[in-house]
């Protein structure tokens, strides 16, 4: 038996062993036949001539484990859900902005008119009382009593206004409700004060007067804002 045949038999036997052992491992055996008809075996792909790599050799590879597609699908679904929510959120935002640009409803206009009427009456309410000189004795006590009585008398009106304007969710109306609630709290605190121990009521009168003047300034500001709201959005650019 010539050496070439022995070598071929040996290589075939070695390839068979490698092929059998490859069932439990990740080894690959390549076989090709050159131009002279000689069969070659190798486990190194780099040793296979380029012209024989595509069609003229057989390769044994371990089975490919398919990658799970569920995480990708879940991710894609999550992205789609996010993309689906975003347009709805933007649409809701646009609706809110559009609602802000709309004019007041009939109920809101009625509430705005009521607030304006009360504020216009309330701003000069205490002017005549301020003119009473804050002196000692009976004069000072009389001034304190009159201011206190006038302040307490406005509490029911303010409570009625709160009920009327609470129907609206507009920021301006909410701000006015908060303002009136704080004013009522201060008024109720004033109503609970008894007669001053000292006949000098000047400190009490000055403190109450300062609060009422600040309150009047806020009321003037609200009147202007309510008038603008009643006028409605400016449509001059659309004409």
Please describe what this structure looks like.
The protein is mainly alpha-helical. It folds into 2 domains: 3-59, no CATH class; 104-231. The protein is 63% helix and 5% strand. It has 8 helices and 3 strands. It has helices at 3-21, 70-101, 106-122, 127-130, 137-153, 155-165, 171-191, 202-231; strands at 30-33, 39-42, 57-59. A 3-stranded antiparallel beta sheet has the order 2-1-3. Helix 3 packs antiparallel against helix 6. The longest helix has 32 residues, at 70-101. The protein is rod-shaped and about 145 Å long. Residues 21-26, 56-62, 69-78 and 235-239 have low confidence and may be disordered.
Précis, in short:
By secondary structure, the protein is mostly helical. Helix content is 63%, strand content 5%. The chain contains 8 helices and 3 strands, in the order αβββααααααα.
Question: Major beta sheet, specifics?
Answer: 3 strands, antiparallel
What is the mean predicted local confidence, pLDDT? 74
- Radius of gyration from the CA trace? 46 Å
Helix content: 55-70%
Question: Helix and strand string, N-terminal first?
Answer: HEEEHHHHHHH
The coarse overall form would be: rod-shaped
Distance between the termini: 109 Å
Question: Strand pairing plus helix content: what structural class?
Answer: mainly alpha
Assembly type: single chain
Strand content: under 5%
Report low-confidence residues grouped into runs of 5 or more. Answer: 21-26, 56-62, 69-78, 235-239
Strand arrangement across the biggest beta sheet: 2-1-3
Number of separate structural domains:
2
Number of helices: 8
By DSSP, the count of extended strands is: 3
């Amino acid at each position: 038996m010539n050496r070439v045949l022995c070598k071929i038999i040996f290589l075939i036997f070695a390839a068979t062993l490698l092929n059998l052992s490859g069932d439990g491992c990740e080894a690959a055996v390549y076989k090709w036949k050159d131009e002279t008809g000689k069969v070659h075996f190798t486990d190194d792909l780099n040793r296979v001539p380029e012209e024989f790599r595509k069609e003229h050799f057989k390769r044994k590879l371990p089975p490919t484990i398919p990658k799970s597609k569920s995480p990708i699908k879940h991710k894609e679904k999550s992205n789609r859900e996010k993309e689906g929510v975003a347009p709805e959120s933007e649409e809701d935002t646009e609706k809110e902005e559009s609602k802000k640009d709309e004019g007041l409803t009939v109920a809101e206009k009625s509430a705005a008119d009521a607030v304006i009427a009360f504020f216009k009456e309330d701003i000069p309410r205490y002017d005549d009382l301020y003119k009473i000189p804050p002196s000692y004795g009976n004069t000072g006590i009389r001034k304190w009593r009159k201011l206190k009585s006038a302040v307490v008398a406005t509490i029911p009106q303010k409570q009625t206004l709160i009920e009327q304007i609470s129907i609206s969710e507009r920021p301006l109306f909410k701000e006015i409700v908060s303002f009136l609630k704080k004013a009522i709290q201060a008024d109720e605190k004033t109503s609970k004060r008894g007669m001053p121990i000292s006949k000098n009521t000047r400190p009490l009168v000055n403190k109450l007067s300062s609060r009422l003047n600040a309150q009047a300034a806020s009321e003037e500001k609200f009147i202007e804002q309510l008038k603008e709201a009643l006028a409605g959005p400016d449509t001059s650019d659309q004409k």
